[in-house]
Amino acid sequence: MKKTEVAVKEKSSVDVSVAGQHDWSILGKSVVKKDTMEKIMGSAKFAADMELPNMLYGGVLRSTIAHGVVKNFDPSAALEIPGVVCVLTSKDIPGKNRIGIIIKDEPILVDDKIRRYGDAIAVVAAETPELVRDALEAIKVEYEEYEPILTMERAAEEDAPKVHGETNVHQKKHLEHGDVDEAFKHCDVIVENDYETPMLSHMFIEPDAGVASFENGQMTVYSSTQNPHYDRGEVAGMLALPQNRVSSVQVTTGGGFGGKLDISVQCHAALLSYYTKRPVKIVRGRMESTMVSSKRHPFKMHYKTGATKDGKVLAVQATLLADTGAYASYGPAVITRATVHAAGPYEVPNVRVDATFYYTNNPMAGAFRGFGVPQVAVAHEGQMNALAKALNMDPIELRIINAHRPGSVTSTGQVLDENVGFVQCLEAVRDKASQVLPPCAPTAPNKRRGRGYGCMYYGIGNTGLPNPAGAFVEVLPDNSVNLMVGCADIGQGSTSAMAQIAAEELGLEYEDIHVTFANTEVTPEGGATSASRQTFISGSATMLAARMAKNTLAEVASNYLNVPQDKLVFRHREIYSSEDRSVKMTYPELMGEMKRLGKLALGSGAYNPRTTGLNAEDMFGVPFEVYSYAATIVDLEVDVETGLVDVLNVVSAHDVGTAVNKQAVEGQVEGGVVMGTGFALMEKIETKDGRITNPVFSKYLLATAMDAPTIYPIVVESGNSETGPFGAKGVGEPALIPTIPATADAVENALNIRFGKLPIQHLDIMRELYKK
Amino acid sequence: MEQIKIQFNLNGNDISVTADPNKRLVDFLREDMGMTSVKEGCGEGECGACTIIYNGKAVTSCLMLAGQADGSAIVTLEGVAENGQLNYIQQAFVDAGAVQCGYCTPGMVLSAKALLDKKPNATDEEIRRAMSGNLCRCTGYSKIIKAVEMARDAKGGVRE
Amino acid sequence: MKPFTYHAPTTVDEAVAMLEQYQASCAVVAGGTDVIIELNERHKAPEHVIAIDKLSELRYIKEEGGLVKIGALTSFDDLENDAYVQAHLPALLETAVHVGSPQIRNLGTVGGNVVNASVAGDSPTTFLTYDAQVVLKSAKGERIMTIEDFNKGPGNCAIRPDELLTEIRFPALSSDEAVGYFKIGKRKSLAIVVLAVAIYIKRTPDNKVEDCRVVLGAVSKHPMRSPEIEALLKGRALTKQSLDDTLSAFTDAVQAAIPTRPSVVYKREGVRGAARRCFDQIISQFGLA
């Protein structure tokens, strides 16, 4: 039994709203992103492009077993090779040898035992990359192997060897909302199904890389990363250095998608540099990068959904099982987020979710675009589509009946505010699809055509946890601006979004803002570029920092113009009275006045989303301040002679609150759509004895330009600016999620075959079509 | 190991160097010639990040040896801009918003250039096919394809 | 990669002399699309590397004395853009356009593709269907061998370490002969062969199958002819219905070839679709559609 109380967000301690002002001068414009010029000219420096004087190259000796211990380790032959400088093991670590964003359970270099294929045993530095390879080949290692835990089923057994500590259960979560058992008794229709999603690889095109340089007691680590501030802490802990003696700098990063949130080369390069007193560069090859970076958690799900004959969903009961692999990484975030979002973007009065994550000796699963929400979306949308069929209802109509709306209560009991644009998304895709999609008829006798539907909601920021970010602003005498934000830009364009937000708030132009980002020596905490949180959280911090600087400016302008501060408008490098446009001054005039008075226009801002922790027993609470929504329709054809699927058209509508940069939002949606079709149809990490057997692009297939569908992105702006910078939410992960269930649904509709297990590859289709 | 002499034209400049033979063309261009726009994403010719224009054709430089540069004309992204100004293909990438993380961008621009140099009037289908050896994980290809179409249209089919 | 001495011969004679000298201690780089990966990953560590990409004398497509002759260094892009191939060899064109990616087609050569003998290779299936022969040159002279004898696969062929494959040749086709080719790959570009079918048919004046060759690619360890299907096809009328009636025999052939392989579940079904499209191409080439 469950109480009927609801959880309401705390009143905000800081105000990021801009009530009434929607005629923005900079926001919403498709500006050219700040980093575009250097990237298009070829001058952008990625980590692998860096050269420092006297630099060495580093490499990692990795285990070739999934579970066991190192019995013998003999580096002597490697050390005899001229040009090989050192071989280091766990014994050489002066500080802590455990890392991990949430739970510190991963060794930098193996000390107690090996828990996965590819665990780091030793690091090597040498004069050239080829010498590193020679050294790694020359090191002799003998192992004692233990039974590897390769399935969740085996992990759960009492007599199974333990990967960590006393149990292989990594975490369990239970969500209880309403009275599920009673509710099912009142349902006219109940659908019950199993779903399974695969382990996936991020396959960012740039393999992990970094350079560390230890000079005059200061360690500087340049790397391809999504969270330089986290990296700083781990490097400092490893070397027992104060955090201010470690500078962590994000260099141009070639994609992340969550796969560059964990420590990759940072600690290894830093350790080698610490010992050799020379800069050390480590560049992973594709295979190493894919083998040891985190993976998407494979899920097994069982869902039971009940509704009235009118289509009102009364109850959802879900069991989620996932394999977190050898180390926790972001597992605790994934299980929490998956549990919270398990019922989907619908007002379901009775929800029960039980989730269990297991440690195994499989590859480490962690953060990957969506933190478990793509997996549960496969199931909750599969259920909605099944329900629509069972009720003989239009799948969009069914969703509109149940959709979150302003004031709806979520399955954690959270009362939603005005910032909910889900129904608009549903209506927008339906309207657009009716305009652009041709009739659902196959183009050849060997083809079958199908339409599919998928939706999602996505909490912006970390789940029920503090996750602040900060920003510094200085308006210079020529009214150019230095903006310093911790937020790592991995190509999504956060740097430019921050510049737009600062320019809008200060009444300057986009070009006036120079952004220094993700450099721990000068930028404040930014937290992770994950969870689609940066536009919202770093964006809010940026706005607050700009507002603080603006307050000083406004004070001076107010005196100069003799206009009350609250009547001043800052816009396009001018400051004027909102009541009389002719009472004005230019920014250069204002900065001249600032100079005369000896004032500096400085600002700092910090923002932490308004959330409350979740109750341990039922997950009641306010896990997120705000949610993004999306709805997608996929149109595709299946060739029944080859089993190959041709995704033709995708219409995808996203409620992002406010689009800071429309073109960038579209770019996120389009990229997410193609990744989503890959998830549904092609991608899957295969393992054998814990070793990934397809860690390369020739075996782990991504869609090419010829495979990509025509995409119709729709930006829905629920635009209420109660929350977020100018009402902006987030889109990075939402972009991916709805396409996955929609693609699966379209294939199932084309063939009238239920799969439930993703990906639906050509061979799965042919097997089902020609089942003997 | 004997060094080899390599004479070739790089981005319009005649070059004569000696180099180690046992490295791939991608390594030679990056390490010896400083052309770091040539990216390595896979080392097996699958991702296209290391694409260069070699004697007028787009090739993956991770599948070639340094010595194969000898006697050739090679264009990397460093050589695409004209007098420090964006060339029309680069400009179209900027206008279309086709750049996200930027790692595939050099190869994408060069595949587009190899096509449009030869076929200024390339069809939409030819464009998609010419770009199909370059993987992108960020954009879904939409704005990249649009950029190449815009470049073609901007040029009005007039060959450079 | 491990250190090696680099050679870039400019004539076939020079190249053959080097092969004679270095024998098994050398690796030959033509297009390089396979061997460079092996060198880089140290799966191969030869003392000598002979890059033959400058042997422009081996880059040609011509018809001579009733034979189509293709120089070993002809790239797939060359094939795709060759007027003769476009006009007379639609199946070879179809093969070429579906190889790898634009970059791979620019680098990859037919000689390399045949010598590499990958199970999932594109052109060996087609060449076997054309009843091709390979020309092998060495310091000792020249050998000509049928491609059927040449293919040992996987990754293996009947070339000696001192030999260079210089040409692939096959009889030019008359208007009474046609070849169809269909490849199933997992995506539209950068796809290796999951399964390929190539079919040659010679017709009688009254449009019946007089002679044929049916080749299945990526089924066995090398492209494989199916005498059973060929026997079934002979004498049949060249109509869609009559040809399509043999499709179940393709399933039987695949089932018999790889009864225990997990991929048989897919290939025995997919092969019918591939074969049907080959028949469609052939009927269209004969102008009977």
As laid out across the biggest beta sheet of chain B, the strand order is 2-1-5-3-4
Helix share of residues of chain B? Answer: 25-40%
CATH T-level fold name of the largest domain in chain B: Ubiquitin-like (UB roll)
How do the strands of the widest beta sheet of chain C line up side by side?
A: 4-5-8-6-7
Which spans of chain B have pLDDT < 50 for at least 5 consecutive residues? Answer: none
The SSE string of chain C, one letter per element, is EHEHEEEHHHHHHEEHEEEEEHHHH
Strand tally of chain B is 5
Q: Any idea how many domains of chain C?
A: 3
Q: Average the pLDDT over all residues of chain C and give the rounded result.
A: 97
> Could you tell me the number of beta strands of chain C?
12
Q: How many domain regions of chain B?
A: 2
Mean pLDDT of chain B: 95
Provide the structure class of chain B: alpha+beta
The CATH topology of the largest domain in chain C corresponds to Uridine Diphospho-n-acetylenolpyruvylglucosamine Reductase, domain 3
- Proportion of strand residues of chain B: 15-25%
**Percent strand of chain C:** 15-25%
- In N-to-C order, the SSE pattern of chain B is EEHEEEHHHH
